[in-house]
Amino acid sequence: MTSSHSESTTPNLAAIWSTARRLHPIYSELAREFAFDLPGCPALDAGEESPGRETVEQAQQWLNAVDERLQAHQLRQFLQTSSLVDPSALVDLLQHLLAKTTRTDALRDKIDFLLVQYFSQSAPTDVDDDNADLAFVAHGVEPVVGKVELKPPVWLNAVDRVLDSALRCRSLDELLHGGVLEQGRKAKAQAGDLFYLPIALVAFTRFGYLMRRVFFRLMLADLNNILDGLAELEAKGIETIDCRRAQFSAQEPILRLRMICQSWKVMFQAEYSSGQPLRMLVDLRASVDAALGGGTATGAAVRKAAVPDANATSSSHDSGSVARHASAASAGNSAVAEPSGSVRAAVASPGHVNNSANGRGPSDVAEFEVAAAVPDWDANPHNGSSK
Questions:
Q1: Which of 61, 183, 354, 372 has the greatest CB tally within 10 Å of its CB?
Q2: How much is the pTM?
Q3: Low-confidence residues of the chain, pLDDT below 50?
Q4: What distance in Å separates the CA atoms of residue 93 and residue 20, rounded to the nearest whole number?
């Protein structure tokens, strides 16, 4: 494996300094955006050309200090909006992180995310799941991990079993609550330091990439089912449905729900757009299904009334604010109009949607957050464990 940040007893100071200078603008922006309480690095700020060993070591310490504070969910958020991190910068970031000898769960999560992000950006747009085998992925991440001998150890078979289970899921609810995600998280945790073997890095990159595609397909399918269900309810003369389980009102207008779903559908085509509620999506589909099976005024569906209920659109989670939030997130994401390469490919077979956060409280955000290594969920997004 190549490394631009050697921790050996005879480090290449020039190479270390060159990488530090390339990472400096990225890390400075990360420290500023997330308000890390850190002083700057004068030598890096000044852009010195050939500093001595002590100065290089100080630069390393500064980068490490940012690394210690930076969590995977923050890195994902940063990549959504920053133009500083192009593919070459991703390689620098990955090689810098992979060179560390102290390995934590937070470090693994960041590397995991960045590898899948790098591969997703470089993969051809027309690749399908069957062609994304180990050899294909190994070639894609070769600039990071080097040449890899494609002889996976037996213990990596567990990753393929999780993928097989995910591919059998027929709804987002089944994927989220059927134990598949827990199996994926367990396989990664049990790998320990073996995760950093080149063949394991390739296998987990493939795993995260294909799991992302499974999520995309299932989320788009759920959105289409919701929209079809809303159309069927309208055809029956039903104007509002009970969507309290999805944080809307007891008499939520179908017209408003359709507008929100269309906004989500646009956002879900973006690689890393924000404010997309997976739990709300699952619960909204359940609400529509219940309305299709119910249809009484006291149950899931409410027939058209001559005089609209003035309180019909108010709830503890105002649906208007959800719609505005969805529209704002959609308008603010430059990737919406033209999804990036990996998303365009998946839209063709059959479609991609994506998510970064669900608009709920802090304890719920990461549990239903789609990221590069999708199976990792965490009830607390601030503890360093991703997804």
A1: 372
A2: 0.71
A3: 1-9, 270-276, 295-387
A4: 10
